[in-house]
Amino acid sequence: MIYADNAATTKMSQVALDAMIPILESNWGNASSLYSFGQQAKDALEDARQRIAVCLGAQPREIIFTSGGSEADNQAIVSAARAGARKGKKHIISSAFEHHAVLHALKALEQQGFEVQLLDVGEAGTVTPDQVEAAIRPDTCLVTLMFANNEIGTILPIAQIGEVCKAHKVPFHTDAVQAVGHIPVDVVAQNIDMLSLSAHKFHGPKGIGVLYVRKGMPLTSLIEGGAQERGKRAGTENIAEIVSMAAALEDACANMERNANHLIPLRNRLIEGLSSIPYSALNGDAEHRLPGNVNFCFEGIEGESLLLLLDDKGICASSGSACTSGSLDPSHVLLAIGRPHEVAHGSLRLSLSEYNTAEEVEQIIAAVTEVVEYLRGMSPLWKAKCAGKVPFVLPE
Ligand SMILES: *Cc1c(COP(=O)(O)O)cnc(C)c1O
Predict the structure, then answer these.
(1) pLDDT at 6 over 90
(2) Which of 141, 297, 316, 323 is catalytic?
(3) Residue among 372, 343, 346 nearest 273 (CA)
């Protein structure tokens, strides 16, 4: 099997697995218990919090453990909205190509009377600090923009956007789920007030993540109960996964440069190889891009058929379009960067990790080239285009 869907989830690293097992076997106490066995669990929890804080440039008390990226996004957005509403501020700035965890949380707030302004991301798939500055109003209570996009891999100028928010005293949250562990993240240097991350996107376990909240920022709990996480997130802590996440993050940060040096040539070769397929186009900016992300549109095919045929060849990839989940809507991200519906349906995302090899990349290029040609050969629409009866959308 060739696994090229690391933006969806990643394989756990050996260090992450090795960190988890001893906790499950012998340090499985409840961190809230007063006897020393419970306190040993508490020590492991606080040690993990400290190590994660160091990786982000944060203070340990600014780290809240959550069930993952989605929960962290929801808590950040709801917290800023509640704090804003108390001061009569109900305007929120975000973008059209955020993850659904952000977009759907914002939609819920809209129904509660908040005004959500989604900035355009243009053809390159980014947001500029000037766009943010122009959108900020006296009643803006939150700017939430992703650090890097999960579909097209584009990286936003987060430090500069953070600077604009800071100058206007508007809280700034970033969904950094695709960035943390892959590109440098420093909450202080990059002027970030709140940040979401998720362990399973950097070779840690699923179901665990972090919300970083700058000291002094108001925080609302989504889950009421015990006093865990300083009363901001109730529920017995998942210490095995938290410790495993800390190990995975330290490993990812320590090897970030080496991994990028391995990945960037693979990514560029994949882009070069797939570009030679006629009527294809790379989605998103070629330069400001995650080291492992490749996303293409191929005119005249359906992404789902492409995925199924690649699966037959042992290749795991992803398509932007959501037909598999019962909807025929193409990816909101591809529509946001201006791809027409027809072309957005023929998209393919390949997201590499440090476990991928140059040989696998060559196999992917050969397989995708063959499958695209095969599917086009079966398509009446494609034949009509080739006969000049229907115009092509993408340039040859
Ligand atoms: C995966 C992902 C999420 C969701 O994280 P979970 O831990 O799976 O809930 C949120 N935002 C982005 C950008 C993601 O890639």
Answers:
(1) yes
(2) 323
(3) 372
